[in-house]
Amino acid sequence: MADRPYNPRPGSNYQNNQNTVNDRNWENDFKKTWIENGIDKEGIKFADDFGKFLKNNQLTTSQIRNIFGEIKRIQMSGIAKNKTAFLLLKPKMAYAVARDGRRGLEQLTKVINKAFDSVDLETEKAESQFQNFVDFFEAILAYHKAEGGK
Questions:
Q1: Domain ranges for the chain
Q2: Is residue 26 a contact partner of residue 111, using CB atoms and an 8 Å limit?
Q3: Are the C-beta atoms of 134 and 79 separated by less than 8 Å?
Q4: What's the farthest any 2 CA atoms get from each other in the chain?
Q5: Is 94:109 a contact under the CB 8 Å cutoff?
Q6: Rounded-to-integer distance, Cα 147 and Cα 57, Å
Q7: Cα distance from N-terminal residue to C-terminal residue, the chain
Q8: Rounded to two decimals, what is the model's pTM?
Q9: Residue 18 confidence (pLDDT) above 50
Q10: Residues 96, 12: Cα–Cα separation, whole Å
Q11: Angle at the Cα of 38 from the Cα atoms of 34 and 41, rounded to 5 degrees
């Protein structure tokens, strides 16, 4: 009995966890409350799984860091002074996807665009929501790197 490989029953958590990383609809699983109110345990789990997915789809750390570097530059001087730079992130990411075409980068762009749209620049919460956006992106990057993303 010990020689048989573990074969979970259909629908078991083990099987779901194995399939989740590659077959998940990342864009629909994103919750805007992670940006509006701050990341929670579910958001951390999402970032972990998404980081694995990105690594498995050959997204390189440098591709993520190109986008993240711009986000950090905006953060350093504040979102209030850099609304235009923040707004230009979406077209820059769209250009990167069109140029590269990798599934990982396409999925990252879809998720980050949803996170981006959750930051309301016209309210007093803009700064805290932007910080939540940065934290969310940083969690994805950290888990991608932890999985061995290059």
A1: 33-146
A2: yes
A3: no
A4: 65
A5: yes
A6: 12
A7: 39
A8: 0.81
A9: no
A10: 38
A11: 70
